[in-house]
Amino acid sequence: QVQLVESGGGLVQAGGSLRLSCAASGSIFSINVMGWYRQAPGKQREFVAHISRGGSIIYADSVKGRFTISRDNAKNTVYLQMNSLKPEDTAVYYCNVDFGTWGRGTQVSVSS
């Protein structure tokens, strides 16, 4: 099994930046895709971005040009650099691996 621990959330003003991290442990030798999803209050969880072990990246249209996903395979960690944050980015952000295991989430709040 894989365990995921997210960190880096917080409260920031609109236009600000945050960097999320997600460290994987456990049965990590087979991880291919690492990604981020988010869930705002009263809404369904939605895709944000993901990156494959080989470096292929996909972003949701809503974050293109503002968020950057990266990973350090040696550290089994995926990052999400979030710039130009908007109030609508407020959500709990969840890490996911191989479209299966989820982290517990980290809160991101953006004030206007």
Structure in words:
It is a single chain. The termini are far apart. With 112 residues, the protein is mainly β. The mean pLDDT is 95. It contains no helices and 11 strands.
The biggest beta sheet reads: 7 strands, mixed
Question: What portion of the residues fall into strands of 2 or more residues?
Answer: over 45%
Number of helices: 0
Query: From the helix content, strand content and strand pairing, which structural class follows?
Result: mainly beta
- The CA-CA distance between the termini, in Å, is 40 Å
Mean pLDDT: 95
Shape: globular
- The counted number of beta strands is 11
Q: State the order of secondary-structure elements, H for helix, E for strand.
A: EEEEEEEEEEE
Cα gyration radius (Å): 13 Å
Low-confidence stretches: none
Helix content: under 10%
Multimeric state:
single chain
